[in-house]
Structures are given as C-alpha cells and as structure tokens.
Design goal:
Layout lengths: L1 H23 L18 H9 L14 E4 L5 E5 L3 E2 L9 H11 L11 H14 L9 H13 L3 H8 L3 H17 L2 H11 L6 E2 L1 H9 L8 H10 L12 H17 L5 H9 L21 H11 L9 H10 L3 E4 L3 H14 L7 E7 L6 E6 L26 E2 L5 H10 L8 E3 L10 E2 L4 E2 L13 E3 L1 H7 L2 H11 L1 H10 L23 E2 L1 H12 L3 E3 L4 E5 L13 E3 L3 H14 L17 E6 L5 E7 L4 E7 L13 E2 L2 E2 L5 H17 L12 H4 L24
Parallel strand pairs: 1-5, 3-4
Antiparallel strand pairs: 1-2, 5-15, 6-7, 6-19, 8-13, 9-12, 10-11, 14-16, 17-18, 18-19, 20-21
Helix pairs in contact: 1-2, 1-4, 3-10, 3-11, 5-6, 5-7, 5-8, 10-11, 11-12, 15-22, 16-18, 16-19, 16-21, 17-21
C-alpha cells in the first residue's frame, strides 16, 4: 500500500513537473525545471512564482587570500577568510578536470543547466524516502549554490543559501540557466574549481594542491586528482587529515567511476588504487594571520596601518574583510637582514623569562621606513608571552610607551640652537637646584612645580651645552629649558612626531619636560632621532610601501610623507652635540664602534622604571628600551631581571645601550659610511671650551634619582 501511494505521488509530481516546465518556457530553451514540491498547486500559481524569481546571478569576486611581504619580497604573513589562489582552467591538469566531472556531473558537457536524468533519479529517491534529499545537481547548479553561500554575509543569508527546500532548488536552477547563457562550460568549470571547498581550510584547486601535496594544480596526478575530486561532496568527512581510511575509500570511488566512464585505463586505475592516499608529514599548513607570522608584532602594526586606509573600505570592518578576501599583495618596509640583527641583539641580551621587557625599533632617516621591530617577549597568550607590542602606540595595538627620560634633552638642544644659543653656552649647574618658584613658559602661559628640587646623578658644575649633553646633567637642561621656554621644545618635539603614546595627546608642558616624563615609544623616538640624522627632514613612519589588488593594480595609500621640520643647520648642530655623547668620557662613549659618525643619548627615568638608549648614524636610527611593563610600575633595581640576571644598577648606557650597540653593529654591516655635516661656526662657539673642574661635584649615582 505504501509503495503504491509513493508511486502515485511520484507520478503526480512528474506530471506537474513537466507541465510547469512547459508553462515556463524552459523546455523551449532546452531545460527542464523541477517542481515536484509544488504538486497540488495550480499551474497559474506556479507560473506566477516563476516570474518573480531573479533571472541573473550577480556573482561576487571569490575570496582570495592576501599576502604581506617584506621589502625583499619574502613572505611575512598570509591573511584570509578562505585560503584560495585562483588559477585559469589551463593551469589545472587535464586529469583533475576529468576527475571532478566524472564524479560530480559526468554529462556536464552534454546537458544544459539541468541534468534531467540525474534530477529525475533524485526526485524518485526523494518521493520514495519521503523527504527532500541533496543530489541530482549539475556542476552549474553546484556552482550557483556555492556562489550564493559565498555571497552570504549573515547567518540568515547563509541559512537561506543552504535550506533543504524546493524553493531554494528552483532559485538555483533559474540562476543556473542564466549562468549557462552567460558562460561557456569551460568557464563554469574554471570558476567551480576555484570556488569549491576541498577541506582542511583549502578553497580552490590550487590551494588544495599546495596544501595536500606541495604541488600546483597543473601537476596533479591521477590519484591526487581523484582525492581532491572526492572531497567536494563532503570536505570535512573525506578530509584525509581527519580520516585516512574514509578518504581513501572516497578516492577509490572516484577512480573506479573514471574507469567505468572510460576516462582512464585498467592499468592506470590499478596503479592509482595502490598509491598511498597522502603523506601526512608533507601536508603544508598555510598559517593565517599575524599570530602565525615570522614577525607577528610588526605584522600587527602593518595591519593596524592598513585598517586606517579608506581606499580599502568605508569602515574598519569593510577594510578588514577586504584585507582577508581581496587577494592583496602588501609590500612592507621591513628588512629581514636588519630585523635579524635586531633580533640577535635581543636574544643576546635578554630572555623571554625576564621580568623586565626589552624592545628595539630601527628606522631609516630621510624616508621613515621602519626597518626592524623586535622585543623580548614572544607573541602569544602563554606564560612569558604577550600580545602587546612594546614598540608602538596604543592606537596601533601597542603598549603605549614609557617615559623616555633624558633622551628628551635632544629636543631641548634643538630648541636652544634654534633660538641662537651656541653649543658653548654655559650655565652653572649645581648638584641640586631649587625650582619651586621658577616659572616655565608654555604655549598657553606659564607653569611651575611648587615642590620641584631636582638633582643630578652625574657631573655638575659650570658646563657648556656639549659638556652637559655628554654627562646628561639634569640641572643644566632644566635651566636651559626655562630659558628657551617649554613651548619651543614642545613644538619641535611635535614636529618630529613625539606625542603621548598612551593617549594620543601632545606631550605635557611641565617643569620636568626636558627630563622625559611623557610616554613615548621606541618607534616614535627612533623616528624623531632619524630626523636629526636626515638634517631636519621629518618623515612619518612608513611600514606599508605598496598595496596591489589581485589584478596587480596599485591601491592608493599614505606613501612617503616627508617635510622639513628643522633647519639643516639646527639639525647639524644637534648631531654635533649628540656625537660628543659617543666620544670617550660621554655617557655613550663605550657604545661607539668602528669609524662611522654616530650620535646618541641615554635616558633613565625617575625611580628607574625604564632606561633608554637612542642613537643614530646618517644611515639608520634606533631606540632601545628596557622597562617594567607591569602595573603598577616598579623600580628596575628591585626584583627585576634582564638576561636572567638581577638588574643592580639600571642605566641607559649600561642596560639599554648594549641592546642598541649590537643591533646597530649588525644592521650597519655592509652599508656605506656616511658623515654628518658640520654646523655653522657661530653655532659651535668656542670649539675647545674649558672643561669643568674635575673636582667639582661628582656625586656617586644613586637609586631613585633623576634621569640620566
């Protein structure tokens, strides 16, 4: 009784099926439309439903993985929602094309949008089993379905694109008819092979060939092609990395189907059946995102820069989607050789288990190109790992910086030289100075600190600007900043890209400004010092040098952004003063190497919470910091380690300096020797100033003193 009822239902469905097909005019076009699910409805209703269906499928570009490259073209990272590398059909091996057609739609080249035989067979099965089953779809219909799923952006859209209903099948068929009108069979097959999911995160035949076999689509063999062709039906269930036995069984079904159709010979089939399915040890993973990058922190910085480019999308969400689906080629500034030198320095002078953190950024003067960015804590969520980039500002996913101590004195020197103070300008600089009633001019008025009585931690006495810089004498620079005014210092610092790395606001104009109380980053400081090296030409830090879409068309971006921030003579003067820091007796004297012109400045902040060394040659500028990155910050002298050893006396020259020195030694290797330009004679003043009395006020460095 049940079988009879099923037969009558099927017969009625078939009659309706053919009748509505005639009404729709589909048969006249050489196609048949399945309407079994509409049995019992009037033909007029069905025909009306047909008229409301869309006639053409708007096909979005397929999602293609993007690649981030170093300056030399080597791969840094891959970004994708779907790991896909589209290729033309001519780049797919003939055996792969035959395998996919054999198992998915053996009459693909003989029928239209619908394979009537397959559809009727599927209908009969659906009616007798009492529910709608998948099956009977042509390659064109499958392509349409995959395209609709690809277009879906919401859960509701995805559910509609995969709903097991006759209405969905009808929509797909109407689209398939349009696709067959628009494209040739080979074009459809090409798009199908590039769109299909081949399991284990591989989309498209090229990515699948690379992933499973470390080959390309044009070199696929018969057993390899059979495996991939078998995956399309159930990418997860037949994934060989999940279940080798099930995967082999499915592959063998494909091989036998190809033999049945006469696509391959018996001997070919037998050899293929005896071939191992896959060498799991050779499966090539395709790391996704910055977390899997060679340079994860630098990669994160690059992505943060890209997400600000409106050319990539109207919103951050749009840009992020385009980055992962647009097939972009992103060329960056990072130099693997210089990066390796900086990393070697970090590895030499620190350990990931240290309680203190160390970080270095290297920038090229005159371009702003960020050549290297490293730190001591690896990327990740585990113990002794971090997701913070200690080299960049909070706005770019960074930690936000540390107070930079006496490295800030370079901007006071620039302000003083700009105002006509010569390098031999003398100020009596005692060990301690009372500034409680001293007013400092700001850009909006004046400021003072009613409790401020700062001290030196190095030489004191009657000093010139050069001598004070060599010894990093606090009381000299505090008095010099009072005479130049804080506004002049703040304006120069801002022109050189200095601001609060945690808030994004300008540096505070306070009495202690010249001693570096604002939170800045190694990237910010190295780039500011690069401006001195470039004779006053400031360039914004540049990590992304070009972005091309999948058609290799250049996408506009910020590019090089340089402007004159200081007169050449002033920058030359700063270089002369800071080069004396690197001479014997200066705080950076023991860090000098070779015969290159070098300039630099140490920095140690109050209570030893961070120590710095920033220095440069005409070729490269770098800033290194060692700091406590916990909250609340604590003194580096107490219970903090660097390179596995307690930090007994943290200083810019002795603690951060060696990181800078070994990084720059490696980075400069092979680069041409360039020289600083001499500043005007009137700026130098007396070229041989009388040195301070060696017996005057030389206190022993003490903990918790002012910056040095």
């Amino acid at each position: 009784m049940r079988a009879g009822r099923g037969g009558r239902n099927w017969a009625r469905s078939l009659i309706t099926f053919i009748g509505v097909s005639v009404l729709s005019g589909a048969l006249a076009a050489g196609f048949v439309v399945p309407f079994a699910g509409f049995a019992g409805r009037g033909s007029a209703d069905v025909a009306s439903s047909l008229q409301n269906l869309p006639k053409e499928l708007e096909i979005d570009p397929v999602a293609v993985r993007s690649r981030i490259l170093a300056a030399d073209g080597t791969l840094i990272a891959t970004l994708y929602e779907q790991n896909r590398v589209p290729v033309p059909l001519s780049a797919v091996s003939p055996i792969m094309r035959k395998a996919i057609v054999a198992i998915e739609d053996s009459r693909f080249y003989d029928h239209g949008a619908l394979d009537l035989k397959g559809t009727l067979r599927a209908m009969l099965r659906n009616q007798t089993e009492g529910e709608v089953q998948q099956g009977g779809s042509s390659i064109t219909q499958q392509y349409v379905k995959m395209s609709l799923v690809e277009k879906a952006r919401t859960a509701a859209e995805r559910a509609a694109a995969t709903a097991v209903t006759y209405e969905r099948k009808l929509t797909e068929l109407r689209y398939a008819i349009a696709v067959e009108d628009q494209l040739s069979k080979d074009e459809i097959l090409e798009r199908y092979l590039n769109l299909a999911n081949f399991g284990d995160g591989s989309y498209g035949v090229q990515a699948a060939a690379q992933h499973y076999f470390r080959t390309t689509a044009d070199k696929l063999t018969l057993p390899q092609a059979a495996l991939l062709a078998g995956l399309v039906k159930n990418p997860t269930g037949y994934d060989p990395t999940n279940d080798l036995t099930r995967s082999k069984a499915r592959r063998d079904v494909v091989i036998k189907r190809m033999l049945e159709l006469g696509v391959i010979t018996v001997s070919q089939a037998n050899r293929a059946l005896r071939t191992p399915v896959i060498d799991l040890a050779r499966v090539e993973p395709v790391p996704n995102g910055c977390a899997n990058s060679r340079y994860p922190f630098y990669c994160d910085y690059v992505v943060s820069q890209l997400l600000t480019n409106p050319e990539l999308g109207a919103t951050v969400k749009d840009r992020d989607h385009y980055l992962k689906t647009g097939g972009l080629q992103i060329r960056t500034s990072i130099d693997p050789r210089i990066q390796a030198a900086a990393q070697a320095s970090i590895d030499k002078h620190s350990k990931r288990t240290d309680t203190a953190v160390a970080a270095i950024t290297v920038v090229e003067p005159g371009t702003g190109l960020v050549k290297a960015m490293v730190q001591s804590k690896p990327y990740g969520n585990g113990r002794n790992h971090t997701n913070y980039n200690y080299n960049v500002e909070k706005a770019y996913g960074g930690f936000g910086g540390f107070q930079n101590g006496s490295t800030m004195k370079a901007f006071t020197i620039a302000a003083a030289l700009s105002k006509g103070f010569p390098m031999d300008y003398r100020i009596n600089s005692p060990e301690q100075i009372d500034l409680r009633n001293t007013k400092f001019r700001t850009c909006t008025g004046t400021t003072r600190d009613p409790t401020y009585q700062p001290k030196n931690s190095t030489h004191s006495g009657d000093l010139t600007m050069v001598e004070a810089a060599r010894f990093s004498t606090n009381t000299y620079f505090l008095q010099l900043s009072q005479r130049t005014g804080l506004c002049a210092i703040a304006k120069i610092a801002a022109k050189l890209g200095m601001y609060n790395g945690q808030t994004g606001q300008p540096l505070d104009q306070v009495a202690s400004m010249t001693l570096g109380v604002g939170y800045v980053t190694p990237l910010m400081l190295s780039n500011a010092y690069a401006t001195f090296a470039a004779r006053g030409m400031y360039c914004k830090p540049l990590a992304v040098t070009s972005v091309r879409d999948k058609s290799h068309k250049l996408i506009p971006g910020p590019g090089f952004d340089c402007r004159r921030a200081l007169p050449r003579a002033v920058a030359d003067g700063v270089n002369r003063v800071l080069s004396q820091v690197m001479m014997p007796g200066g705080t950076g004297g023991h860090l000098r190497f070779g015969t290159r012109d070098m300039a630099g400045k140490t920095g140690t902040i109050q209570q030893n919470l961070a120590v710095w060394f920033a220095g440069y040659t005409p070729n490269l500028a770098a800033a290194a910091v060692v700091a406590d990155a916990t909250l609340p910050y604590t003194n580096l002298m107490f219970r903090h380690t660097l390179n596995g050893v307690d930090i007994a006396d943290p200083t810019g020259s002795g603690t951060a300096g060696p990181l800078w020195e070994s990084a720059m030694q490696g980075a400069l290797r092979g680069l041409p020797v360039k020289r600083f330009v001499n500043p005007p004679r009137k700026m130098i003043g007396n070229p041989n100033p009388t040195p301070p009395d060696s017996g005057k006020q030389k206190p022993t460095p003490k903990p918790n003193t002012a910056p040095r």
